[in-house]
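step=encode ok
step=design start
structure_in=
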């Protein structure tokens, strides 16, 4: 509710036109706080509109409805850009979501081998990027974007990885990820993430992505949905790896499971296509490539 400040000429009852009263009620304004420009201080429609224009002007401070003290932190350029792009994405791209659970036992066995033989093991995210890139090559309809005149299917698989930084996030791109081994992707993502957090990403490092991956699993989030990064048509949200009870060949067992959620732009991707992509992703993730540095 917007609260107008009282003036010295306030009285218990203010003269106002019926239209100004209706407009004030609609916006939660108290007539006692408005100055009237009509005869004998009568409040007219123009007075209400003038107050609203001042209260809603760009940069005007909105009062806290409960009158609580607060601190305002100015937006950075990066935060403003993120807010604008994500708002446009939710407004323009009709999102739908598809989820699948993946068994990571084979991934963790592969990571253990990597640690033993190479002295450096890729993260779960690196295996996710590798599997996503392979699935994009297998189901190219997801490696796409929607335009007003045509569908664009990209011939290169460039996977962007969301990296949290101080004022939001950035999405450095692993180019031609479908042509790289897990080890190559691991070395590249390590460098890109370090540069992103230090603010030293090379110019153009965040451009050219055809698909995105966002992983909150390391923060304990089991499952979430992500907003598509335009002009891309899809993004994969990755949850935490955790032990869960599963049934394998009729026997109850415990496995390391992870839930992923694909957000897709329905203008470019149909449900059956999303399902095929998730099936391909799950297959590649649950059967990782043999050790290859």
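sequence_out=
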């Amino acid at each position: 509710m917007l609260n107008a400040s009282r003036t010295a000429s306030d009285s218990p009852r203010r003269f106002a036109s019926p239209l100004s009263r209706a407009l004030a009620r609609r916006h939660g304004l108290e007539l006692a706080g408005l100055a009237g420009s009509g005869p004998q201080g009568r409040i007219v429609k123009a007075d209400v509109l003038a107050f609203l224009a001042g209260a809603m002007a760009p940069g005007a401070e909105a009062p806290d409805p409960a009158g609580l003290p607060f601190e305002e932190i100015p937006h950075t350029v990066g935060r403003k850009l993120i807010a604008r792009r994500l708002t446009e994405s939710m407004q323009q791209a009709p999102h739908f979501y598809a989820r699948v659970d993946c068994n990571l036992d084979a991934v963790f066995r592969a990571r253990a081998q990597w640690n033993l033989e190479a002295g450096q093991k890729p993260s779960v995210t690196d295996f996710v990027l590798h599997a996503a890139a392979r699935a994009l090559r297998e189901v190219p309809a997801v490696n796409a974007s929607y335009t007003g005149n045509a569908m664009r299917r990209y011939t290169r698989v460039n996977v962007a990885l969301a990296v949290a930084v101080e004022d939001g996030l950035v999405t450095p791109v692993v180019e031609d990820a479908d042509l790289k081994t897990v080890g190559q992707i691991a070395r590249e993502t390590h460098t890109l993430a370090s540069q992103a957090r230090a603010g030293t990403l090379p110019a153009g490092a965040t451009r050219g992505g055809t698909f995105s991956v966002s992983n909150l699993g390391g923060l304990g989030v089991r499952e979430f949905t992500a907003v598509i990064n335009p002009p891309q048509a899809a993004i994969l949200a990755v949850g935490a790896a955790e032990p869960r009870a599963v049934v394998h060949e009729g026997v109850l067992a415990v496995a390391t499971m992870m839930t992923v959620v694909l957000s897709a732009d329905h203008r470019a991707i149909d449900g059956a296509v999303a399902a095929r992509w998730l099936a391909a992703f799950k297959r590649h993730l649950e059967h990782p490539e043999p050790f290859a540095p």
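step=design ok
step=annotate ok -> The helical segments are 18-26, 45-55, 77-92, 105-118, 124-138, 182-198, 271-286.
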